[in-house]
Amino acid sequence: MQTFNYKAIDKSNKEKSGVIQAENAKQARQLLRDKGLIVSSIESEKDRKEKTAKNVTFKKKPISSLELSLITRQFAILINSGMSVEQSLGALSDQLESHEQKSIMSGVRSEVLSGRELAASLQMYPKVFPPVYCSLVNAGEQSGSLGNVMTKLADYSDKTRELTSKIMMALLYPVIVSIVATMVIVALLVFVVPQVVKVFEASKQTLPLITRGMIAASNGLRNFGIYILIGIFVSLFLFIRSLKNPENKIKFHRRLLSLPIAGKLLTNIDIARFTNTLSMLLSSGVPMLNALEAARDTLSNYMLKNAVDRAVKMVREGVGLAIALNAQEAFPPVVIHLIASGEKSGNLDHLLEQAGSHQELELTHRSELLTGILEPALIVFMGAVVMLIVIGIMLPILNMNKMVM
Predict the structure, then answer these.
(1) Residue 267, domain member (yes or no)
(2) Are residues 293 and 201 in the same domain?
(3) How far apart are CA 142 and CA 285, in angstroms?
(4) Beta-bridge partner residues of 5
């Protein structure tokens, strides 16, 4: 069975579009004719995906993390209610509103109907279903507990999204304040200061140092502002391009982790995500090496990811996980100790979950500390710069008043 995307006209001359499953395009056209539709175009999902791959576009992800979490939870409910995988996928496809999402779920269903396992069918859409997702689905299929695993997966997706949103909300206020402060300062220097300078030039007095510095900054922004912006963008482009070199990327990510407060924050985020993922994979029956490789892909820091790569090689050679991770000198000691205890007691998945919870707790404290420092610091900085500009304007005016007196 294949999935076909079609556009057709119904009996009331209204355009309709959707997806249909058939053995080939000829059968798909016949099925649509039987429904009273006049087919204007029909294309297999496989051909559509090949065209999309050729025409590289920067489109947003077809299924967001929130939508994927909802779909996963609905799928778990359907499976646990006794419906088959094919029926569950069909029900999910019918309730989706987005044509692209409906097409993806129909494509997965057609792969399952053709004899593929669900995990292998999901792997046909790597941009939608990450490796961790597919590994867990595969473990659920092999163990015969797909419904329970999908429920765990939905809970995991919610937890991961909550962790991300917590960090985004913590940094949102400082970012907004920084942007507003920069815009206010630039507006003062570019639009306000030049108007005031005209008065000073007419008085022909010797201006104070702070005023001359302010005028120089204003002239610099007005005359060279565009070149400064171009320079920033070019530097940013060259910097991003340099990160394509693995060695440069590792060095940069290592420096990020060594930053005061922020470095620890980044470490907490990645380690929490890694340990929680590994715990869920192991508790679902995924083999250690497969679980490590899938959990590694959740790491955003390249240095940590490289460390896990080396640890995986050591584990493959028979070394314990705690010893392998400890040898990389990249993971916090408390995490290593909890993993070592888990390996000795045979309760590794539970203690990995505890390690993840500990990292999340540290993350919460550090994010509150960071925002607590940044918020007043940014306000003080903005106030200080604005005050300097005001002083730079007021000093010559006061001098002019003294000269008049």
Answers:
(1) yes
(2) yes
(3) 9
(4) 19, 43
- What is the model's pLDDT at position 230? 94
Q: What residues pair up with 84 in beta bridges, in sequence order?
A: none
End of a domain among 108, 128, 158? Answer: 158
Domains held by the chain: number: 3
Q: What is the pLDDT of residues 371-392, one digit of tens each?
A: 788 878 888 888 888 888 888 8
Strand partners, 41: 7
Tokens matching residue 83: 């419906």
Quick one: 366 and 280 in the same domain? yes
Report if residue 165 sits inside a domain: no
b/e burial code for range 57-88 (CB count within 10 A of at least 16 → b): eeeeebbeeeebbbbbbbbbebbeeebebeeb
CB 222 within 8 A of CB 190: yes
Strand order in the sheet with 2-9: 15-22, 2-9, 38-44
CA distances (Å), origin 57, targets 51, 61, 360: 11, 11, 36
pLDDT, tens digit, 9 for 90 and up, residues 25-34: 778 788 888 8
Residue tagged 């990450």 (tokens): 130
User: Of 175, 167, 176, 155, nearest to 364 (Cα)?
Assistant: 167
Based on the fold, state whether residues 183 and 118 are members of the same structural domain: no
Q: How far apart are CA 184 and CA 317, in angstroms?
A: 59
Which residue range(s) make up the domain with 21?
2-54
Strand blocks (E) in 237-379 = none
Q: Is the pLDDT of residue 164 over 80?
A: no
85 and 197 fall within a common domain:
no
Residues 90 and 42 in one domain: no
Task: Report yes or no: 25 and 42 within 8 Å, Cβ to Cβ.
Answer: yes
Do 189 and 287 fall within a single domain?
yes
DSSP, collapsed to helix, strand or coil, labels residue 347 as: coil
* Residue 7: closest CA among 35, 39, 33: 39
Domain assignment present for residue 189? The answer is yes
Give the predicted TM-score (pTM) of the model. Answer: 0.69
How do residues 259-309 score in pLDDT, each as one tens digit? 887 788 888 888 988 898 888 888 888 888 888 888 888 888 888 989 999
Same domain, 235 and 118: no
